Amino acid sequence: MHSIKFKNWEEAKLNLVKKLLASSGKSSIHSFLFRGQANSTWKLLSSFDRMERDKSKYDILLKNFQEICQTYNYKDELFPRQDTELIAAYAQHYGLPTRLLDWTTSPYFAAFFCIFYCIINKNKK
Q1: CB burial class (10 A; 0-12, 13-18, 19+) of residue 22?
Q2: Which residues cross the membrane (predicted)?
Q3: pTM (2 d.p.)
């Protein structure tokens, strides 16, 4: 994992890509994936793994989500096969905690989520 610190958002917008490429030796910003976390020292954990100690509940959560989707969906082909990753992606999209991690190719989207989570965590204190 690579971290670059800036004094403010203006400095980040002006220098992020240039500093990232210079410090990594890469020639293109498209060589990177970004994740918006409020603290660079945090482990890469999914929302489910942060919230739930009993990991066996994950399969039950996804099964219940799938059943609810099938109940309220008129198309039988919403989940045509038992594809756990597809079901988890739908579940995450609708706000359920999953074991998936969000990644983006845009450092600006990642920055948005970093700032968003910083604000949420600050308001919880």
Answers
A1: exposed
A2: 100-120
A3: 0.69
